[in-house]
Amino acid sequence: MKKLYLLILCTLFSLSASSIETVDYTQGLSVWFDTPNNLDGQAIWLRASGTGANPDKAWESRSLPIGNGSLGANIMGSISAERITLNEKTLWKGGPNTAKGAEYYWDVNKQSAGVLKEIRQAFLDGDSQKAGYLTQENFNGLGAYEEKDETPFRFGAFTTMGELYVETGLSKINMSNYRRILSLDSAMAVVQFDKDGIRYQRKYFISYPDSVMVMKFTADKGGKQNLVLSYCPNNEAKSHLEADGNDGLVYTGVLNNNGMKFAFRIKAIHKGGTLKAENDRIIVKDADEVVFLLTADTDYKMNFAPDFKDPKAYVGNDPSQTTLAMMDNALKKGYDELYRNHEADYTALFNRVRFEINLEIGTPNLPTYKRLANYKKGVPDYQLEQLYYQFGRYLLIASSRPGNMPANLQGLWHNNTDGPWRVDYHNNINIQMNYWPACPTNLSECTWPLIDFIRSLVKPGEKTAQAYFNARGWTASISANIFGFTAPLSSKSMAWNLNPTAGPWLATHIWEYYDYTRDTKFLKEIGYDLIKSSAQFAVDHLWHKPDGTYTAAPSTSPEHGPVDEGVTFAHAVVREILLDAIQASKVLGTDAKERKQWENVLAKLVPYRIGRYGQLLEWSTDIDDPKDEHRHVNHLFGLHPGHTISPVTTPELAQAARVVLEHRGDGATGWSMGWKLNQWARLQDGNHAYKLYGNLLKNGTLDNLWDTHAPFQIDGNFGGTAGITEMLLQSHMGFIQLLPALPDAWASGSISGICAKGNFEVSISWKEGQLEKAIIHSKSGIPCNVRYGDKTLKFKTVKGKKYEITLKGDRLTVL
Ligand code: FUC
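That's the Glycoside hydrolase family 95 protein sequence above. Prediction below.
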């Protein structure tokens, strides 16, 4: 079925303007709408911040996102004009190049480490109020780093690149068969409709290999393209737009806030009719077909070792030049070759995983928003569940490719000059969640932007570690930007602002990447130092109490509760990074002495504790409230994403974690439901995990399947995709567990190409709730431990070989 669909799709793309065919997108994986957007929301440059829906509702819930990890766009699909919001992931306000550049960096930190002794003494004296007060006074950043009205805005914000309009001269009168489709099979957006007996079609894709956005306007009748392309710039920039020859435009902008340069170029290629570039517009008359090529860039440069005094530390090449080179390349190739390259690049990643559940039940012939509405009413739609799963993988490929920064709070899509939480990198759950699906769903390459981001934090993070904790190593705080910001912001709420284990949490992703890929060269040359220095910070920032134990004083449970002498979350992260560092040093056969220290601290770290309701304690004292439905569940870090609590190895702690999840309930914001889905999966309760997945789709998902907090926040999409993978395969406890949390609802199905730690690729099929078979492809040739229910099997493997696992009677067998 899928093959047939692709064939139709490919045929379509090679047809000429006069022979457009209707494509049956219901057969593939696609998100689609049957009604056009109007143009209400265009370029309303509002500083949309905080929670609540985005003021441009159509953009937020009914646009189609495309991207190549650097360049992003949303297709609105209006009739009278196509509106396209543009983004480049490094277009940020803030950083050392703001007017207060010299004060950007670590001068703002108070030398807080000296106060730690007093804070800890207050805890010893039982005066937690004093400890809290001193923490708030001394562990806040100076200045107003999180305030958008700070002049100049030094922390900064991700900001829009502006909007393109392509006026079509068409009205909605006599328009029918409208479709706005995002094909996940080809990473292509299509808008098509009939009007006055003519079929119009627009196609959009953004190529990673050729760094270009391609837009093709066509119809099944010649001479029907009468278009005017124009641009509305970000109003916080000095702008210059001019014709580039007879057939193009070149835009250069400079952000007022920090002088960041950005640019794009457009070239238009037409068949038939006339086309001319006039000042700031491209005008097409009576053409059969027009292809617009767009290249865009900023002058941002990643920097892993910035000179703290250099305001230009993050300034690189002139984007008016880099966009020229990209455009020359694109023009040489032309539409067909650009599409072939794009498709080959994208499908090589996307097609690695196939997922099918109860195939006969689904309603793909309905537009996605109607399916979602039915699903909300309780109509089963397993194909919608599959689609959401693959949409998460699509979004990761579109927003996180090597060579650029990681996916931010909205991936790389934003329609405003700044937005909720500055559309930044939140380190207390959000950015980490973005990367949960990367390795398990066979997209380990997409982790590279996160690895580079972590590298960019190390040098500044050493300053933060030193100033606040007199600690070795590096750390980060609640929020980061693309300019190496690692200090705390300033806030009355220390529960939000004090988060020194954000750095070690990020560093656990380095080990995860290694553990999945077993890339020892990476571990040796890049990964180990990041892990080791993070472990050093973790050790040094702890309080070695007079009774000999180690505790994270002061610490807070993210966005929840008082300043504490040692919250469970902080200890769970410390446990994780120390275990990672110990393993990494063993793999590389290095640092045996330091490893002993890590082992010693681990042994004396305040243990997990179970409280009066049977719950896992969140704080150092039993003040948990069973009615508390707070969205953060960070004290269950050891259950997920960590690996120190499991029903297999620590059943009592797993039961205590279950009590917490029961108390917290099954609702909350998008990402929170996404996290709880993963945690229920780790508890191996498939039906409860499935309930959370259902809740995420029903209560945290917009019509275009974007996750909503509200507003749109992409982390829940990634948490959802990761959670489904966790339901079907787990490998965090040193063995591969097949179908650990299969819900009753998914009676039959299969998933292929997902990954387990140890560099195994796994495909599983099941029938009537029972394992049919699993194929395990050993890519590093290490021994394999498999579990299915309580059945276990161990066998040696040879690199490159595939092994078939089935259940024979009561035993697992391997072929
Ligand atoms: C954390 C969450 C909020 C929101 C923000 C971006 O602070 O607690 O709910 O997701 O990140």
